[in-house]
Specification:
Helix content: 25-40%
Structural class: alpha+beta
Number of helices: 3
Strand order of the largest sheet: 1-2-3
Shape: globular
Order of helices and strands: HEEHHE
CATH superfamily: K homology (KH) domain
Number of strands: 3
Length: about 80
């Protein structure tokens, strides 16, 4: 799932070299964290969160055969 999120995010942003995707597994879920440049945050989230929701929908469809739930988390780099 990490690769899928990375490909989608890099195609949306102006600074694809600053896209960082990490993946960690919890007991019942896989959490995919997406970090982009602050100037690209709006492009990844979209108006009213539509792009973010679409990314989550695609990842959910791609992981439908897996037993674990996949959570896509878009991390604001400034708030870390």
């Amino acid at each position: 799932m990490k690769e899928l999120v990375e490909v989608i995010a890099k195609s949306l942003v102006d600074k694809p070299d600053e896209v960082n995707v990490t993946e960690r597994e919890d007991a019942d879920a896989v959490v995919v964290e997406l970090r982009v440049a602050q100037s690209d945050m709006g492009k990844v989230i979209g108006k009213q969160g539509r792009i973010a929701k679409a990314i989550r929908t695609v990842v959910k469809a791609a992981s439908s055969g897996d037993d674990k739930k996949v959570i896509v988390d878009i991390v604001d780099v400034d708030k870390e």
